[in-house]
């Protein structure tokens, strides 16, 4: 199922990957020039909730991920297997691409970061299905005032959060279900209407990424760390990165061959 979903991404036949290939771990992306890879690797280690590192490529090699269990098929290409890519220059997003084939160089290193879409099947199995799956929309994502611990050229960035609404009396169950998924952000970082103010979110109906959320009477926003955060680190680096930088388009993830059980065996759940 994971491989078939990656093929659909390669063929640009899917967009929002939430709910696809349930049970498999999904990943965010950042592709950087080799000279900045160490700084970004350190950023991930210092910020494991927002930037949980699943794997990375060797410089210039788009076909293999280490650790190898993340992708087990030989037919893999990090330049094509995400449904959509975002392009950055000088810390600013300058557009989107269907693939990276004609802009890739031997100097690039790719990083896969855990994604909260990975625990949505577990939420559904527990009777807590995410609203955006019901409405066939993109999960809402917001910039916050939570600082990202700096590393090298990546300084001054703040974290992104994703939001799923739940009733107050279901939040403990939501926390319990998602807590074991440490490699894909784990349990919520904040919840409730007071958290909206504390996180610096100005309008819950105006997300910075994704679609406006559909909150029903009696529900409150519940926030998780989000793998779009590395893109904020790229923004903070600005002109310190002279070459193009690539990321996933928010909501357009890679389905890996990891399952939650695999991550438990590796001690990363």
From TrEMBL:
Top-level lineage group: Eukaryota
Coiled coil: none
GO molecular function: D-glutamate cyclase activity
Keyword field: Lyase
GO biological process, one term: glutamate metabolic process
Entry keyword annotation includes Lyase: yes
PANTHER family, A to Z: D-GLUTAMATE CYCLASE, MITOCHONDRIAL
UniProt similarity note: Belongs to the D-glutamate cyclase family.
Protein name (Swiss-Prot/TrEMBL): DUF1445 domain-containing protein
């Amino acid at each position: 199922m994971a491989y078939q979903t990656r093929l659909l991404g390669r063929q640009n036949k899917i967009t929002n990957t939430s709910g696809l290939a349930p049970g498999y771990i999904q990943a965010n992306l950042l592709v950087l020039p080799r000279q900045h890879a160490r700084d970004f690797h350190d950023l991930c280690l210092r910020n494991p909730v927002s930037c949980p590192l699943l794997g990375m490529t060797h410089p210039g090699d788009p076909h293999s991920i280490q650790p190898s269990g993340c992708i087990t098929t030989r037919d893999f290409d990090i330049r094509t297997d995400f449904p959509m890519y975002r392009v950055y220059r000088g810390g600013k997003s300058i557009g989107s691409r269907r693939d990276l084939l004609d802009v890739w160089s031997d100097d690039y290193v790719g990083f896969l970061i855990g994604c909260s879409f990975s625990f949505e099947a577990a939420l559904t199995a527990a009777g807590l299905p995410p609203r955006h799956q019901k409405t066939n929309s993109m999960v809402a994502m917001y910039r916050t005032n939570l600082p990202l611990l700096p590393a090298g050229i990546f300084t001054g960035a703040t974290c992104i959060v994703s939001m799923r609404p739940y009733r107050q009396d279901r939040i403990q169950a939501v926390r319990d279900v998602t807590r074991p998924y440490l490699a894909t952000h784990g349990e919520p970082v904040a919840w409730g209407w007071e958290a909206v103010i504390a996180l610096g979110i100005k309008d819950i109906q105006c997300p910075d990424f994704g679609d406006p959320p559909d909150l029903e009477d009696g529900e409150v926003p519940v926030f998780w760390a989000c793998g779009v955060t590395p893109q904020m680190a790229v923004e903070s680096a600005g002109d310190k990165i002279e070459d193009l930088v690539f990321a996933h388009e928010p909501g357009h993830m890679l389905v890996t061959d990891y399952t939650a059980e695999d991550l438990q065996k590796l001690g990363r759940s």
